[in-house]
């Protein structure tokens, strides 16, 4: 004890402790200053940065999808509308066991294999926190069944949203088109802000071509959210602007009827008002139901459509390029009249020969038409007369004249994807084929064979121009667009192209009268279709060869494969004096124009002019 | 100076504080801080009154315990020290054998009370070191230093094994502070620090995966935004967006919209920083600094080595807790689950803390009686 006390020097120990305590307080104050400088860095120097982050945390901007514009026909019948639909959606991030959940859900709600595939594909594409639809168009019973067990399915929700619906289904699918989910290629094209809430986009027809009008303007809602992303309150909102409604020139009743009348033929019917270019009906068959594309068509169903030999996806009215056959004769005849080359008659022996060439160009009538003038050549569709006329006109003049009617050019119709057809010329052949033009090619061009290709729309438009004595309108589908707010609809003004001018205008009447006699004279090729009509129809039949027959062979319809049979064509306008409708009908492999296409056209004309059958 | 004149003035009167064996400046600062804590907790808990009442009860109990402890003289405390430390060690071993808790075993359940034996060690480790060092002259001889190191390492390892990295860190530090205050040679201190840095990779090897993750997250919080990095990022946003004057009480969006995790407990400082800004924080830091300075002053006035060392260690450990917590919340240090003293919601550590202050007061107030 004594030794300890001697060693323990209380004074020095106290001093030692004091020194250490001072070191401690100095270090503590320095560290506190360290904290304070850190706080100055966070709260003053970086305050703006963190304030922004805090706002971003707190506020969520939710885009609101605009309602897509509706589509009406010329009489106000709705062709495309938005209907509420319940879909079953999953948020992968919130679902623990995806496969197991799908399995359990399939016991409540029918989920097909294609639904599953579609869903799995989307899961890979989308982000984990996005809601992904599994099934669309739930029935009310399915909604009720799921709602009872809802608490068992975390991350699975029923979403009510508007989906596009086409009440007329197949009819007009090629014209109206359809909407589908936005794909990767479209994502590049669209304005990402305006489409931030939009899931579907126009894929075809009017829906695609008028996408900008139909889509509308996205709206926004600023929401205050908590860390779980649950919305606590809405701070600010800009409502979306709905897309414009469209009013079409199409008469859906006529469209339906024409669709029915074309029956099982593959082909097309185009009917337009020659006075302004308004398209009344635009048929391409076979067709398909657009509604299946809205919610995502299965791979198999799509493959079936794509690979069908009947090509239902192919819009024949604007993409189908057919040899026009004899339907070009009134136009070639007009070219002849305008060049003063068609005022004489000739003798038709049933064939035609070029000098210095052994090849015989046959007339469809083996025994020949005998003495034939232009009128007879049109009414009875004499080929030899037009072989001769073509030879006299020469290809360059024919090309120039036919171009005035729009042959070989796009019509400018207001849906995307139209093809121009082809009316050949020396330049074209040299450029595209690298070959010189042969005189024999001029001859067959005179009857609409050879290189010549036209779309049904081109034929109808050329017919309309002819019926109006050269007044040439752009064919249009959309009549008017809904105006802003409650303003009147904005009409789409008819676009007039350069008129066809003849040296002597009475030649119009000459040709048109011949076309009249095609239907209303005892020898006319479409006389049966003109019978008992309470109004006068002018038209021209056409039978286009699909299959080349050898020089001396016989064309025997029954022996030839169905798909190699001639196409049946017919063009017409009516009433004769004041035409209000021009029509082109093509029935693929239908055979003779007078027997198949003309009666179909007559029925459509009756329907439009007399209201028959509608 | 202020502290000096206050006690000088007090010495003449025989006040209520003296008769209760409490130090008036210290208890006033502690009460003010605790009151401020309640104000923050009210906001952090989304104005949950139940939580406030519970915290108030804990505070009452803790302050009560502090006053009780203050009645025990340092001599008695010194007498019981080895026994208390031994009990703490036994319980620590018990907790490893029978303990419970989520993920880590920290709790012992005695039917009525559930508590963490590491809390006993928090107080008794500095006491046992002081008890041992007070026996011989200071600064301690190397052989005694080694004994001390063993005394520190033993409970530290037991707690780290639970695993509770934060607490073991605090406990080891509180022991080291005793050593530093005992006058251990700086030469030795620096070489020990060097050795510790060299041993860091070894520590990494013994860490649990989640502890390694915390360190990695600290080094790069943005890397794991949805996991543990979220805590740091959100708390920095909260504090930074508070600015100089804060968003105002109850107006913190980070905390009220639940972006900030653990906002009533470990991350409550971020709530405070968001709502009261830099100014509010300076007020709190001033209160803390006063408590620390007063505690250190009390220690220097202690009459024996035991009281000096225990008191000094309590003061520095108190600061160490604050520094680690604020450092963590502001992104200066990795996330270790340490509460902010007197402010964070929670029971056990509050009682432990107040026991420590009770000891300090006992050291201070019994001194005069002894000298008379």
Descriptive overview:
The complex is a heterodimer of chains A (614) and B (372). Chain A contains 23 helices and 23 strands. Chain A is of the alpha+beta class and 614 residues long. Chain A has two domains: 62-248, Penicillin-binding protein 2a (Domain 2), CATH 3.90.1310.10; 252-288 and 310-478 and 496-550 and 560-610, DD-peptidase/beta-lactamase superfamily (Beta-lactamase, 3-Layer(aba) Sandwich), CATH 3.40.710.10. In chain A, strands 2, 3, 4, 5, 10, 18 and 19 form a seven-stranded mixed sheet that branches. A five-stranded antiparallel sheet of chain A has the order 12-11-23-22-21. In chain A, helix 11 packs antiparallel against helix 23 (597-610), helix 15 (329-338) crosses helix 17 and helix 17 packs across helix 19 (439-445). The longest helix of chain A is centred in the first third of the chain and has 36 residues, at 10-45. In chain B, 72% of the residues lie in helices and 1% in strands. In chain B, strand 1 and strand 2 (114-115) form a beta hairpin. Chains A and B meet through helix 2 and helix 3 of A and helix 8, helix 11, helix 13 and helix 14 of B.
| Domain count of chain A | 2
What structural category characterises the helix and strand content of chain B? mainly alpha
Content of β-strand of chain B = under 5%
Number of helices of chain A: 23
What amount of the residues of chain A lies in strands? Answer: 15-25%
Q: Helical percent range of chain B?
A: over 70%
Largest sheet, strands/sense/barrel of chain B: 2 strands, antiparallel
Mean pLDDT of chain A: 88
What is the highest CATH level, the class of the largest domain in chain A? Alpha Beta
Rg for CA atoms of chain A: 37 Å
Q: What is the rounded distance between the termini of chain A?
A: 127 Å
Class inferred from helices and paired strands of chain A = alpha+beta
Q: Based on DSSP secondary structure assignment, what is the total number of beta strands of chain A?
A: 23
Calculate the terminal CA-CA distance of chain B, rounded to whole Å. Answer: 24 Å
Oligomerization: heterodimer
Report the uncertain regions of chain A: 1-6
Q: Largest chain-chain contact?
A: A-B, 41 and 50 residues
């Amino acid at each position: 004890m004594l030794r300890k006390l001697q060693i323990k020097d209380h004074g020095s120990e106290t001093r030692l402790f004091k020194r250490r305590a001072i070191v401690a307080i100095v270090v503590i104050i320095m560290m506190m200053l360290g904290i304070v400088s850190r706080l100055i860095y966070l709260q003053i120097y970086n305050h703006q940065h963190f304030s922004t982050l805090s706002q971003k945390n707190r506020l969520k901007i939710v885009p609101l999808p605009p309602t897509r514009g509706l589509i009406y026909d010329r009489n106000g019948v709705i062709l495309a509308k938005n209907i509420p639909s319940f879909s079953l959606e999953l948020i992968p991030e919130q679902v623990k066991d995806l496969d197991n959940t799908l399995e359990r859900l399939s016991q409540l709600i029918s989920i097909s294999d294609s639904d599953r595939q579609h869903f799995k594909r989307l899961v890979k594409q989308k982000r984990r926190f996005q809601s992904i639809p599994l099934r669309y168009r739930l029935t009310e019973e399915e909604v009720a069944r799921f709602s009872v067990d809802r608490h068992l399915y975390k991350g699975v929700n029923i979403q009510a949203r508007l989906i596009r619906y086409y009440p007329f289904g197949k009819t007009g699918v090629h014209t109206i088109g359809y909407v589908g989910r936005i794909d990767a290629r479209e994502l590049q094209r669209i304005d990402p802000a305006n489409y931030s809430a939009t899931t579907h986009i126009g894929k075809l027809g009017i829906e695609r071509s008028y996408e900008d009008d139909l889509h509308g303007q996205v709206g926004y809602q600023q929401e205050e959210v908590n860390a779980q992303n649950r919305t606590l309150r809405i701070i600010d909102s800009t409502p979306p602007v709905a897309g414009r409604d469209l009013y079409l020139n199409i008469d859906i009743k006529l469209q339906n009827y024409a669709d029915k009348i074309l029956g099982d033929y593959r082909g097309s019917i185009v009917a337009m008002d020659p006075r302004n270019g308004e398209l009344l009906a635009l048929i391409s068959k076979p067709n398909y139901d657009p509604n299946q594309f809205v919610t995502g068509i299965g791979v198999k169903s799509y493959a079936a459509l794509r690979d069908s030999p009947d090509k239902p996806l192919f819009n024949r009215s604007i993409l189908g390029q057919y040899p026009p056959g004899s339907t070009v004769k009134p136009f070639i005849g007009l070219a002849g009249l305008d060049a003063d080359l068609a005022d004489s008659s000739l003798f038709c022996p049933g064939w035609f020969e070029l000098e210095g060439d052994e090849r015989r160009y046959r007339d469809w009538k083996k025994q020949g038409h005998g003495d034939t003038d232009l009128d007879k050549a049109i009414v009875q569709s004499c080929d030899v007369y037009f072989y001769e006329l073509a030879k006299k006109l020469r290809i360059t003049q024919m090309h120039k004249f036919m171009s005035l009617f729009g042959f070989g050019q796009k019509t400018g119709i207001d849906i995307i994807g139209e093809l121009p057809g082809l009316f050949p010329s020396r330049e074209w052949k040299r450029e595209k084929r690298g070959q010189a033009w042969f005189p024999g090619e001029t001859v067959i061009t005179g009857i609409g064979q050879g290189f010549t290709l036209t779309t049904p729309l081109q034929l109808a438009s050329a017919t309309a121009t002819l019926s109006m004595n050269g007044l040439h309108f752009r064919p249009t589908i959309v009549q008017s667009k809904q105006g802003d707010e409650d303003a009147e609809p904005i009409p789409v003004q008819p676009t007039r192209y350069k008129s066809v001018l003849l040296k002597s205008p009475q030649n119009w009447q000459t040709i048109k009268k011949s076309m009249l006699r095609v239907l209303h004279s005892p020898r006319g090729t479409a006389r049966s279709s003109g019978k008992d009509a309470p109004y006068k129809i002018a038209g021209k039949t056409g039978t286009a060869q699909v299959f080349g027959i050898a020089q001396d062979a016989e064309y025997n319809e029954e022996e030839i494969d169905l798909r190699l049979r001639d196409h049946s064509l017919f063009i017409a306008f009516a009433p004769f004096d004041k035409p209000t409708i021009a029509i082109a009908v093509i029935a693929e492999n239908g055979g003779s124009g007078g027997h198949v296409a003309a009666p179909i056209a007559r029925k459509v004309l009756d329907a439009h002019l007399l209201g028959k059958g509608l | 100076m202020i502290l000096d004149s206050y006690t000088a003035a007090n010495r003449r009167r025989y006040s209520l504080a003296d008769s209760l064996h409490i130090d008036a400046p210290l208890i006033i600062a502690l009460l003010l801080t605790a009151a401020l804590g309640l104000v923050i907790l009210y906001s952090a808990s989304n104005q949950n009154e139940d939580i406030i009442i519970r915290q108030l009860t804990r505070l009452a109990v803790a302050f009560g315990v502090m006053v009780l402890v203050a009645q025990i003289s340092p001599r008695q405390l010194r007498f019981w020290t080895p026994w208390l430390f031994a009990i703490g060690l036994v319980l620590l071993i018990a907790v490893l054998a029978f303990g419970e808790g989520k993920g880590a075993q920290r709790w012992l359940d005695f039917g009525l009370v559930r508590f963490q034996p590491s809390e006993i060690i928090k107080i008794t480790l500095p006491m046992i070191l002081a008890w041992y060092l007070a026996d011989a002259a200071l600064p301690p001889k190397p052989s005694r230093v080694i004994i001390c190191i063993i005394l520190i390492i033993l409970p530290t390892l037991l707690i780290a094994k639970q695993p509770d990295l934060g607490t073991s860190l605090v406990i080891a530090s509180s022991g080291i502070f005793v050593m530093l205050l005992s006058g251990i040679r700086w030469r030795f201190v620096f070489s020990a620090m060097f050795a510790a840095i060299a041993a860091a990779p070894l520590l990494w090897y013994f860490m649990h995966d989640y502890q390694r993750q915390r360190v990695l997250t600290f080094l790069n919080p943005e890397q794991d935004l949805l996991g543990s990095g979220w805590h740091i990022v959100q708390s920095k946003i909260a504090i930074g967006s508070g600015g100089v004057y804060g968003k105002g009480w109850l107006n913190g969006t980070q905390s009220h919209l639940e972006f900030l995790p653990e906002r009533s407990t470990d991350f409550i400082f971020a709530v405070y920083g968001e709502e009261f800004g830099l100014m509010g924080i300076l007020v709190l830091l001033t209160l803390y600094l006063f408590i620390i300075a007063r505690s250190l002053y009390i220690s220097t006035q202690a009459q024996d080595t035991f009281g000096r060392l225990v008191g000094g260690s309590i003061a520095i450990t108190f600061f160490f807790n604050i520094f680690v917590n604020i450092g963590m919340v502001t992104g200066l240090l990795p996330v270790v689950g340490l509460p902010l003293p007197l402010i964070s919601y929670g029971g056990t550590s509050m009682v432990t803390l107040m026991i420590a202050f009770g000891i300090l007061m006992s050291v201070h107030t019994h001194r005069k009686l002894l000298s008379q």
